[in-house]
Inverse folding.
């Protein structure tokens, strides 16, 4: 499972790539793999405000729907319309072309509360072990 | 209760299957991915291990009359080597299961029913027993491999060397010797495609499944099976048909014979439900905008809830959400505009002809 070390993660499988007070958000390789073929994305409009841990939107694969959560608080400044048009980009390139939104962080220190790559790796390892029980 | 595992479970693990519980079984849901598996079946061939399904061998001099009393279709009228879809109903006409009945010989039948209804099916046959009948459940000894797709029959014949199978016409079945065991093949399925459903001893299936995959048949899970059957508008018991639905409103009149002068469980009730005008009908609905309709979503017309979706998913062929619902008959005309409430969001949708997908028949 691909877990880039320069990103920060939520236990709900979102990632954020932060640069100053700007961040790009997506879902992890593990999450896209668990979901299977992604066929629909419901993302907030540009300009909307998100609260850390609040619902960001919905993502649907053929078999199920999942909620997306905001890794940090801030304002949505861009939505990846290409991913909305072709959600399989998330399956094919979850950390690249399959990004979801760009956000202006209102409280950048919130990033420190998120998981590092190493911590996220441990988190999904535990989750996988629970699933096979 | 621990889940039952398929006899070929380890093989599915090696093939990279994801598993999920279904009707008490740990079942492969997907391998390469639902969309890819779905398109393999539509374009080439796929194979499903559906060994969780019930199989009931009913034999003896009373087999034909017993099964006629147990099911809605005139299965006593089938020729040996013929099969037909049928329903099992209780005396109130409530649908207990939908099944396939295969007449193997004059005095021997195979009934394949849904995994969740294995016991109900056996009890139904027991209730209907007339004359000298033996009921044999070989669930533990055999596997069911459903091969489906335009190239499925040819692939099965090539891999097994059983070219005689290619002579089967739709809904025909045969038992042949294969590697010292009995192999049952029927030209039936649940995907809207051509193909063979095979019942074989599981240690034969252990070699046959990898050989089919080696030949290019895609391993497919329950996920693709559901999207395939939905495109073909084949009802799923427990969703689209259940005890509260009638065969008439479900569009399953072809599975019910009322005019052969024979009695069966539920007949009187079905005669009256057929005479009463039915006010709703199982209808195909396609979303006209993005979003996925699911089982249970309310269907709205002019702002009012008129039904709820009995099935809903994504059609890989149409790249849109599709589903079915029992709509009031006056709204069931193709072109009727509807909204479907998907977790509070109203999705535009339209009634389309049933089924969503029909294969081009070549023979």
């Amino acid at each position: 499972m691909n877990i880039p070390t320069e990103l920060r993660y939520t236990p709900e499988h979102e990632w954020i790539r932060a640069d100053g007070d700007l961040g790009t958000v997506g879902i992890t390789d593990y999450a896209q793999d668990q979901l299977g073929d992604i066929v629909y994305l419901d993302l907030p409009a540009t300009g909307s405000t998100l609260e850390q841990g609040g619902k960001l939107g919905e993502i649907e694969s053929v078999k199920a729907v999942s909620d997306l959560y905001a890794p940090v608080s801030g304002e949505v400044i861009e939505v990846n319309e290409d991913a909305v048009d072709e959600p399989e980009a998330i399956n094919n390139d979850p950390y690249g072309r399959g990004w979801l939104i760009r956000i202006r962080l209102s409280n950048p220190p919130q990033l420190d509360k998120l998981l590092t790559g190493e911590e996220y790796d441990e988190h999904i390892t535990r989750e996988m072990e629970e699933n096979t029980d | 209760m621990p889940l039952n595992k398929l006899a070929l479970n380890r093989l599915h693990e090696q093939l990279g299957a994801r598993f999920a519980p279904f009707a008490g079984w740990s079942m492969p849901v997907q391998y390469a991915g639902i969309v890819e598996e779905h398109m393999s079946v539509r374009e080439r061939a796929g194979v499903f291990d559906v060994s969780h399904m019930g199989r009931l061998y009913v034999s003896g001099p009373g087999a034909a009359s017993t099964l006629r009393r147990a099911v809605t279709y005139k299965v006593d009228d089938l020729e040996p080597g013929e099969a037909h879809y049928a329903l099992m109903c209780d005396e109130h006409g409530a649908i207990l299961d939908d099944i396939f009945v295969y007449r193997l010989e004059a005095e021997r039948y195979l009934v394949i029913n849904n995994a969740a209804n294995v016991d109900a099916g056996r009890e139904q046959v027991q209730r209907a027993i007339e004359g000298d009948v033996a009921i044999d459940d070989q669930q533990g000894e055999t596997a069911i491999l459903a091969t489906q797709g335009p190239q499925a029959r040819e692939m099965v014949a090539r891999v097994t060397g059983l070219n005689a199978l290619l002579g089967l016409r739709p809904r025909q079945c045969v038992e042949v010797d294969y590697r010292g065991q009995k192999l049952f093949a029927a030209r039936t399925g649940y995907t809207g495609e051509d193909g063979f459903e095979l019942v074989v001893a599981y240690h034969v299936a252990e070699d046959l499944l990898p050989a089919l995959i080696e030949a290019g048949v895609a391993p497919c899970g329950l996920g693709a099976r559901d999207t395939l059957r939905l495109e073909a508008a084949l009802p799923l018991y427990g969703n689209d048909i259940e005890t509260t639905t009638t065969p008439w409103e479900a569009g399953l009149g072809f599975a019910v014979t009322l005019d052969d002068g024979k009695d069966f469980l539920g007949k009187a009730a079905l005669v009256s439900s057929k005479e009463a005008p039915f006010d709703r009908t199982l209808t195909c609905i396609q979303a006209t905008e993005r979003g996925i309709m699911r089982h249970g979503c309310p269907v709205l017309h002019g702002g009012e809830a008129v039904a709820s979706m009995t099935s809903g998913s994504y059609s890989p062929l149409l790249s849109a959400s599709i589903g079915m619902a029992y709509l009031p008959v006056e709204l069931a005309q193709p072109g009727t505009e509807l909204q479907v409430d998907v977790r509070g969001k109203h999705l535009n949708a339209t009634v389309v002809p049933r089924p969503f997908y029909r294969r081009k028949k070549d023979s």
In short: The radius of gyration of chain B is 20 Å. Chain B has three domains: 4-51+139-231, 54-137, 279-363. The interface with chain A takes residues 18, 29-30, 33-36, 223, 227, 290-292, 294, 313-314, 316, 321, 343, 345 of chain B (CB under 8 Å).
